[in-house]
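Tutorial, part two.
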Amino acid sequence: MSDPRDDGPVDPNRPPESTTPPPVPPAPEGGGYAQPSSVPYGSEPAQPGGYAQPSGYGQPSGYGQPSGSGQPSGSGQPSYGSPAPTKTLSLIGMIAGIVGLLGSGIAILPIIGSILGLFIPAAAIVLGFLGKNREGAPARPFWLTALITGFIGVGIALVALVFWIIVFSVGSSDGFNYDY
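Running the prediction step on this input gives:
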């Protein structure tokens, strides 16, 4: 049997092939993308799975990493270490609480106004608690305002609802008899 790797007769003018892998270029300084290897694809030694991997691929690119000198990497992108905490739930809750207090005047409408006056402050309370649990201390002023204004708005709406119920129950039993 002949060796499948045998290319035929050896050319005496051809230099001997090296069995050592080509050198891997160093990672670029200061971030950016790794430069591709000048070695053509497929000429690198096979990886453990039998697949050739071009040099330059799989190398850390330094994208988004600080360069070590304290200067930004120059990629224009923020580093992805820890994202800034969001305050969306707490902010929407605070706005709902303030709108609920400003709109508490709707409670002058008999019964319906009081029931409608419960929705926005109740949403402020729910969003305030969600903001407290999910967003924590950085959003504390917002979720605290949402909770306080939400509870005050719900209190106003409940007092108005009880007032209208009493007014209508007393008004219908005050002795007016419409029997003719």
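The chain has a mean pLDDT of 75. In part three we will examine how such features are distributed along the chain.
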